[in-house]
Design brief:
This protein is mostly helical. The chain is built from 20 helices and no strands. Helix 17 runs antiparallel to helix 18.
């Protein structure tokens, strides 16, 4: 009996070590995941050589499916940052929606901009617009700032090509096009909920006044200065060109996904072999779609920028992707070890008897890891790594809903150990701990609760 449960005990020890290393030591999440994978493999009955082989196989197969896509996505995002496309999108939505609807305009901007741009950077870039609108329109900076940050954080968690959702899709083996479309839909009610909360927050603190830029931390102030220096004397690109690199891959991937869906119906089985089907099977693959969007961003948003400067901007984006690629690969390695050791199969038998849907297992794990160590990306990758080998053994499991559960479960209660918590609160000059939680911990938890309903509904529909 003890031998039967050894892989499960080994997994429990591995998860405990992983959490302890990330939370209490200076060991990076990458090394912590590799150590946890080694413990899970050896204690689960694998030899030392088999454990190493499983780690290498899992690492390589995960990055093989999404590594290039992550790299292309962050390069495109960097071009959108430095070209002014993000500001153009924000200004355009504000103009369309009119006065007194600025919070909706900023939330929609965040919803779109955070798909390719890292959430922390996007908030730093767009926050000066929040301050300007609050001053000129006599609106609450809390309402506008939280609406923007809410739109940013939700699609950052749910929609590829943001690296976290891409990594989760790779670990679960989910089609990236389906992951993208599901994330876009599930994010909408979450954003709406956060905007209504942001409106209430402005009424809750009617006398709140933002501090000046001089009071902001030096690193954030320096980021503002660098960005404004880049933009000085440069006109913003048009709205169509600003949206083109974001919309183009979504459309290509959607057409390919639609083709695959139609091919399963009677009378359209010929579609994949047709010229149309073959063309969009190529153009709509995430790697090619993101390559096209990166080229569009370079040649439409930075047409007059010289070659060396353009390459520098693209490489700046790749530098930010490095650690995410490694952590994602390590997550895939941990998942591979769980499959090889048999822990996933054993746990699946117990999970099948639980009184909740197995799809919610990654949601619960992501929530717990998020609270413990703070990083949403690490939480969703860890949840996917642990849960994918388990629930993949169960019959009739909707892996798309499970993958989205892992990403959205990581929205829960952003607080002191999350970098975005400090970016949002410090940019708005909030120092009171209770108010900091009201401004950012509560709305992320509200989005988490709404997303739980969305995941359950998605599982039921599909």
């Amino acid at each position: 009996m003890m031998a039967l449960y050894t892989p499960i005990i080994g997994l429990a020890v591995a998860v405990f070590v992983l959490i302890f290393l990330v939370l209490r030591t200076r060991v990076h999440a990458l090394l912590a995941m590799l150590i946890a994978a080694s413990i899970a493999g050896i204690s689960g009955g694998l030899s030392a050589l088999q454990t190493v082989e499983a780690i290498s196989k899992g690492f390589g197969s995960t990055l093989g499916s999404i590594g290039i896509v992550i790299g292309l996505g962050v390069m495109m995002g960097r071009v959108l940052e430095v070209s002014g496309a993000a500001e153009q999108i924000a200004y355009s939505f504000i103009k369309w929606l009119g006065k007194r609807r600025e919070e909706w305009a900023l939330a929609i901007t965040g919803y779109i901009v955070s798909i390719p741009i890292f959430v922390d950077s996007a908030f730093v870039i767009l926050y000066p617009l929040v301050k300007a609108l609050a001053k000129k329109g006599k609106r609450s900076v809390l309402t506008l700032g939280v609406a923007l940050a809410g739109g940013l954080i939700i699609t950052h968690h749910a929609v590829p090509p943001t690296p976290g959702p891409l990594g989760v899709a790779g670990i679960f083996g989910v089609d990236i096009g389906a992951m993208m479309l599901a994330g876009l839909v599930l994010a909408i009610p979450c954003v709406i909920g956060v905007v209504f909360y942001a409106r209430w927050l402005g009424k809750r603190y009617p006398d709140f006044q933002p501090t000046g830029f001089d009071d902001e931390p030096q690193d954030l102030q320096a980021a503002h200065q660098r960005y404004l220096a880049e933009k000085e004397g440069k006109s913003l690109p048009g709205l169509g060109l600003s949206l083109l690199p974001i919309v183009a891959p979504i459309v290509l991937i959607f057409i390919n996904a639609l083709n695959n869906m139609l091919a399963k119906t009677d009378g359209l089985s010929w579609l994949p072999a047709s010229l149309w089907g073959q063309a969009f099977a190529f153009l709509g693959s995430p790697m090619i779609a993101l390559a096209i969007s990166t080229l569009l961003a370079v040649y439409t948003l930075m047409p007059k920028v010289d070659k060396n400067t353009t390459l520098e901007r693209l490489e700046e984006g790749l530098q930010t992707a490095g650690i995410i690629l490694l952590v994602t690969g390590a997550g895939g390695a941990l998942g591979a070890v769980l499959r090889e050791s048999g822990a996933g199969t054993q746990l699946a038998e117990h999970v099948a008897n639980l009184p909740i849907s197995p799809v919610l297992i990654p949601f619960v794990i992501a929530t717990l890891v998020r609270v413990i160590q703070g990083s949403g990306t690490v939480a969703m990758i860890t949840a996917a790594s642990i849960s994918a080998p388990i629930i993949s053994q169960l019959p009739d499991i909707n892996m798309l809903a499970a993958a989205q559960a892992a990403t959205l479960g990581a929205l829960f209660f952003s607080y002191f150990n999350d970098s975005m918590f400090w970016v949002v609160n410090r940019m708005m000059g909030i120092t009171d701990v209770r108010q900091q939680m009201m401004v950012w911990s509560v709305p992320t938890t509200l989005a988490w609760a709404i997303s739980l309903c969305g995941v359950v509904l998605l599982d039921w529909v599909l």
